[in-house]
UniProtKB/TrEMBL annotation:
AMP binds at H85, N86, F87, Y88, H89, D126, D240, Q293. One of its GO terms (molecular function) is 3',5'-cyclic-nucleotide phosphodiesterase activity. This is High affinity cGMP-specific 3',5'-cyclic phosphodiesterase 9A-like. The gene is LOC113146895. It comes from the Eukaryota. It comes from Cyclospora cayetanensis. Zn(2+) 2 binds at D126. The active site is at H85 (proton donor). InterPro entries: HD/PDEase_dom (IPR003607), PDEase (IPR023088), PDEase_catalytic_dom (IPR002073), PDEase_catalytic_dom_sf (IPR036971), PDEase_CS (IPR023174).
């Protein structure tokens, strides 16, 4: 990945190139209907590059374009071809993160360099994901589980993988920073990625609940009172699980991919004589996918996004309404076909 020629060879570019065509703009990305899964791979890598170039230029970081492109190529190469946890998921997360950073009072908490750092965290937050969750890694004592003592196993692995890429000179986005600045950036990358561990989800929601209940007047101003490390984690985690906020076809596309990956884990666990981590996903069909969607929305997404919609009704009220529509649409298919026939 050390040269433009190597990248062009990887993508076998003909008429379409990562380096040609109109660059993606922030206007393109600040749209809830932007669907990254519609992009061919060269375009997806170009989107990654254009986003980082935009934030790097705003922060005047002085990063050479070739370094950014090398980094994007390395990200693409080190995301596995999983149904869900892949390079496109990383792009989806960073795109939604851009939307959240544009919320009133949120962007004001961050410097242009912060925007760049958080974007890098989003792009690398699932780097090298094996397609199995922390429970599987712990249960089978896979080597990352042993290294990280069964604590946020994959999140630690993703953060370490990202930092390893950033240590390569021709991919080092932060080479122009002082040692002190670099140490701060690394800590923030790790902290933000750690918050994507689903084991931390309910603590995160409870903390936000407490903050909201303690306010006399509910407004986006609450964001100004949140500690910055928590806020960074909140934004990245929210972007990570934001699929139910999308228009139904996009939401369902991601749900099918997630269930495909989970069902593959169920099958492997069965082959290993282990109980499936998701017993409700008994088969990979419309009925089970719909049930999984409903459970994810009800128990994970609604408590978080309803709170955020209360704080940002003008910006996120419509997304919360879309989540409810998606839940209702899923409920319409979460009926066994045998019952529909009766």
């Amino acid at each position: 990945m050390g040269s433009t020629a190597a990248l062009k060879a990887q993508f076998n570019l003909a008429s379409v190139s990562c380096f040609d065509g109109k660059p993606y703009t922030m206007h393109d990305l600040l749209d809830w209907d932007f669907h990254v899964l519609s992009l061919p791979e060269p375009e997806a890598v170009r989107l990654c590059r254009d986003l980082l170039v935009y934030y790097a230029d705003r922060a005047a970081l002085g990063i050479r374009g070739e370094v950014i492109m090398n980094f994007c190529g390395a990200l693409h190469a080190n995301y596995l071809q999983n149904p869900y946890h892949n390079f496109y998921h990383a792009l989806n997360v960073v795109q939604v993160l851009c939307l959240l950073l544009a919320l009133p009072d949120v962007g004001a908490r961050f410097t242009p360099t912060d925007f760049f750092v958080l974007s890098v965290a989003a792009l690398g937050h699932d780097l090298g994901h094996p397609g199995f969750n922390n429970l599987f890694m712990q249960r089978n004592q896979c080597w990352p589980a042993r290294i990280y003592s069964n604590t946020s196993i994959l999140e630690n692995y993703h953060a370490a993988s990202l930092l390893q890429i950033l240590r390569v000179p021709h991919m080092d986005l932060f080479a122009n920073m002082s040692d002190g600045e670099l140490d701060s950036v690394r800590k923030r990358l790790i902290n933000a990625i750690m918050w994507t561990d689903m084991a931390k989800h309910f603590d995160m929601v409870a903390k936000l609940d407490g903050k909201i209940q303690g306010e006399m007047v509910l407004s986006e101003g609450i964001m100004c009172t949140l500690q910055k490390p928590y806020l960074e984690g909140l934004l990245l985690h929210s972007a990570d699980i934001s699929n139910p906020l999308l228009e139904f076809d996009m939401c369902r596309d991601w749900a099918i991919r997630a269930c495909d990956e989970f069902f593959n884990q169920n099958k492997l666990e069965e082959a290993l004589g282990q109980p499936p981590f998701m017993p409700a996903l008994q088969s990979f069909d419309e009925f089970c996918i719909a049930k999984a969607q409903i459970g994810f929305i009800d128990f994970i997404c609604k408590p978080l996004f309803n709170n955020l919609a209360l704080m940002f009704p003008a910006q996120l009220g419509e997304r919360a309404a879309q989540m409810r529509k998606n839940r209702s649409a899923a409920a319409g298919t979460a009926v066994p076909k045998r019952l529909l026939a009766e």
